[in-house]
Amino acid sequence: MNKKVGMFSAVLTLIAVLGFAVSMIAGSSYGSYFSSLFIAWGFVPMICAFAALGKKEAKAAGYAAIAFASVYTVLICIVYFAQLTTVRLSQLNDQASAILDYSYLGSLFFNYDLLGYAFMALATFFIGLTIQAKSKSTKWLKALLLIHGIFAVFCVLIPMLGIFEADMAGGDMIGVIVLEFWCAYFSPVCILAYKYFKKQA
After folding, report:
1. What is the DSSP letter of 56?
2. What stretches of 54-150 show up as alpha helix (H) in DSSP?
3. What tens digit of pLDDT does each residue of 123-132 get?
4. What's the CA gap between 180 and 189, in Å, rounded?
5. What tens digit of pLDDT does each residue of 166-201 get?
6. What is the pLDDT confidence band of residue 11, given thresholds at 50, 70 and 90?
């Protein structure tokens, strides 16, 4: 069962990541929000499967990864569910939009989104510690997961430093490029995760 959960969740996460990438290119903000929900819903069981199959001496790291993944999912789902419901269906005034609307760079929910991805990065780092890298593909998977943990630093510091502002010139384009880079980075993680789970006894 652990193997099947891992394989299914890796595929679901990959499909959602690709859907997110296409939505960003197509300029469909609500498509990207919807895809992001499924990234979160696929990511948590994938992390849990890694933890279940990890080496016994790394249980603490596995539990930490699950905890961080859970916080990530709560934050992300709050942000994107609000965009798909309250923000999309309501007539918000400027003050409310500046708080709730993700499309406003530097808004509260934009910052919550970055905080959520900081927790995702922490989850990948700790789950990377649970993997015994024996094959070449598993070594790549472990390295990508550990390196992905670096994103946590930037996701926390960027909102604190006020790098993204509502009136920032070219901010939307920069955001798209950064997110497309993340999709290109995380897609191989999902593919290698699927192969990792498939090889498990």
Report:
1. G
2. 59-82, 88-89, 94-100, 108-128, 136-148
3. 999 999 999 8
4. 15
5. 566 666 777 789 899 999 999 999 999 999 999 987
6. very high
Q: What is the 3-state secondary structure (H, E, C) of 135-192?
A: CHHHHHHHHHHHHHCCHHHHHHHHHHHCCCCCCCCCHHHHHHHHHHHHHHHHHHHHHH
Are the beta carbons of 153 and 122 closer than 8 angstroms? no
Structure tokens at 93: 């005034």
What count of residues does the chain have? Answer: 201
Which tokens hold the place of 78? 């709050």
Give the CA distances from residue 185 to residues 60, 176, 180, 191, 201, in Å, rounded to whole numbers and listed in that order. 26, 14, 9, 11, 28
Q: Quick one: DSSP state of residue 13? A: H
**Do 110 and 155 form a contact (C-beta atoms < 8 A)?**
no
Residue 190, judged by CB atoms within 10 A of its CB (0-12, 13-18, 19+), counts as: buried
- Cβ pair 87, 102 in contact under 8 A: yes
CA distance 9 to 48: 10
Rounded CA separation 102/112 (Å): 9
User: 147-164: buried (b, 16+ CB within 10 Å) or exposed (e) per residue?
Assistant: ebbebbeebbebbeeeeb
